[in-house]
Amino acid sequence: MKRLISLTAALLLATASANADPLSFSSAKKRLAKLYSDNQSSFYCGCDYSSVTKESGKGKKLAPDWSTCGFTPRKQEKRASRIEWEHVMPAHHFGQHLQCWRDGGRKNCKKDPTFRAMEGDMHNLVPAIGEVNGDRSNFKYGMLEGEARVYGKCDAEVNFKAKRFEPAPAVRGDIARTYFYMSDKYKVSLSKQQRMLFEAWDKADPIDQWELEKSQRVADIQGNANPYVK
């Protein structure tokens, strides 16, 4: 059955649109680093991470501890040594609905207020190992048959030819509820196939305590919770 937004969810989204204080992507990442300070675990692989001094000796970065999740780099060890903030719904997906994107891509949308709000929406951002974030790119989520693991014990699979990425079962519901939120709030269309997949993932992977906590913490900062996380 097609999932329909409830009246309560619709009211929450309407209130959010009126009260939200949009953050830039840069500001959102800084806020998220603090928001996750007591739950520093990478999204796709479940690696613990912490703040460490950069190789240059100047400044700090968030770095994953591969040993905590059995991660091994596929190809880019340097990028795999840092945590990046991943858009669950890729910028390409939500941006292509805007005229600024059609006129010149992401760079051309930097000053567009709607794009900036979507790009900096913290409900759509999660901490990911840099290499995994890069490999996922703007690939759609999906199920991959017989795809070999390429990140050691990390339960994430990627098919570059098919441009598909399969996440671990433990985060599939989180992904689904993020897509429902982004679709409703910013009027981003989902294909019938995508919606069916996410409805199945939503049921198979129920909301957990951290998902609830994150939604509330984001609401405290940007003015709106994810109505699908309650």
Strand content: 5-15%
Which class best fits the helix and strand makeup? alpha+beta
Oligomerization: single chain
**Portion of residues within helices:** 40-55%
Low-confidence stretches: 1-19
Largest sheet: 3 strands, mixed
* Shape label: globular
Number of helices: 10
**Mean of pLDDT:** 90
Our Rg estimate from Cα atoms comes to 17 Å
Reading side by side through the largest sheet, how are the strands ordered? Answer: 5-7-6
Order of helices and strands: HHEEHEHHHEHEEEHHH
Number of spatially distinct domains: 1
SS elements, strand count? 7
Distance between the termini: 20 Å
Protein described:
With 230 residues, the chain is of the alpha+beta class. It has one domain. 44% of the residues lie in helices and 12% in strands. It has ten helices and seven strands. It has a three-stranded mixed β-sheet with strand order 5-7-6, with no helix packed on it. Helix 8 crosses helix 9 (192-204). The model is unreliable at 1-19 (pLDDT under 50).
Please give a handful of descriptors for the protein shown.
globular; 230 residues; two-stranded antiparallel sheet; disordered N terminus; three-stranded mixed β-sheet; alpha+beta
